Amino acid sequence: MKVVKGGSVSRMLKDVPIPRMFYAVQDFKKDHIEPSQIPAVIRRELSKPEIAGTIQPGMHIAITAGSRGVANVDIITRTIVEVCKERGAHPFIVPAMGSHGGANAEGQKELLAGYGITEEAMGCPVRATMETVLLGHSAYGKPVYQDKYAHEADGIIISCRIKPHNAFRGPYESGVCKMMVVGLGKQMGAESVHSDGLGNMARNLPANAKVVAEKSNILFAIPSIENAYDETAIIEAIPAQQIFAREPELLKIAAANMPSILVGEADVLIVDAMGKNYSGTGVDPNISGTWSTSYGSGGLKVKRTCFLDLTDCSHGNANGMGLADIITARLFDKLDLDVIYTNCFTSTVLRSGMMPPVVATDKEAIQACLRTANGVEDYQAARIVRIKNTLHIGEIMLSEAYYKDVTEGRYPGVRAVSAPEALCFDKEDALAGFTDPVAFPAER
Questions:
Q1: 30, 119, 364, 411: which one has the fewest Cβ atoms less than 10 Å from its Cβ?
Q2: Distance between CA atoms of residues 12 and 9, nearest Å
Q3: Measured in whole angstroms, how far is the alpha carbon of residue 162 from the centre of its chain?
Q4: 254-291: per-residue pLDDT in tens?
Q5: 136 forms bridges with which residues in the sheet?
Q6: Which of 183, 178, 171 is nearest to 65 (CA)?
């Protein structure tokens, strides 16, 4: 199927005006660890008495690496590998990403390579397989699986990020327990914990994780937490026996660090790019407000949302596209339905893989959102928010309807750094690149 410009849809949309927009900066807490300091922080954490003794000479140790775009994941992973080798152990990396990468070993290894995690860069093997071992059953009767290579190792180090989940709420969301159950469980483990629906994830996730803790040799966890600017803010090594007590505390810190779109409400949200490196659903609903289930809430209150593109490192996995109201032909042409449906069938959240209306260009995507946003009678006065992606919202664009309120300080933390101007489109009606070199002078 080919989506082309100039048909009936194009004629319907061509006269919909798009309001002028201006660049704005959102200010959040900036505490972070400089990338150059990350190795020292990790070495300090791995030198804690309760952690250091878990790595012994001669041990074969599996280190997890997931499919999310974790800040500085290459530095973090490589440093863990180096410490293990210095202590005489034999580390290797396992892709811990459930059903992602098309639920096949080569696809998962390719995802890691996109984040700079290769055997050459890490200095150790990357062992990818979809084979699993059945560890047992949870208190709720759910089978619990584990990556074959990780299970055969003398010990497992859980390296991950902790942050709020994109589809449910509970004391354990995206973090250590999820990596133990979903990531290391591969496709079968992910399917098991999701099979009762997202409404039961807050119950099933820790129940399955307890089986993992009891039936495998988890040495320790070393999660990171990021600030609102996608920078590493905290790295902490947690002894295996303290994971269940400490993770909920760290989740609260991660939630407090989450950024938001500070204007709160909009008629239209433009997302330049979705992708697996930004969120499991391509766009994080904690930011965008585009939820796939009724078990999570928050984010921008918005009438219409368009996704303009898919990141190359997602390898066609646009699971989450169903949360948009409109997508572009550019995004549509990158879809790998086999990968998308493997992912959403495993999670049982079919809405994430549903196809929104597809229009020919970026300009038409914005116009379609405006035309179908109920209650917007004056398009020039529409409230539009534009973001690069949901992981980087320190710099945004807002339509002219917000300008007076922003300049008068109605939205604390939001500063206008340019005057309203018409959006720039090229001859193919593709939206010009987000970052204007003049727009964010010394603020960056």
A1: 30
A2: 5
A3: 11
A4: 999 989 999 999 999 999 999 988 887 889 898 999 88
A5: 144
A6: 183
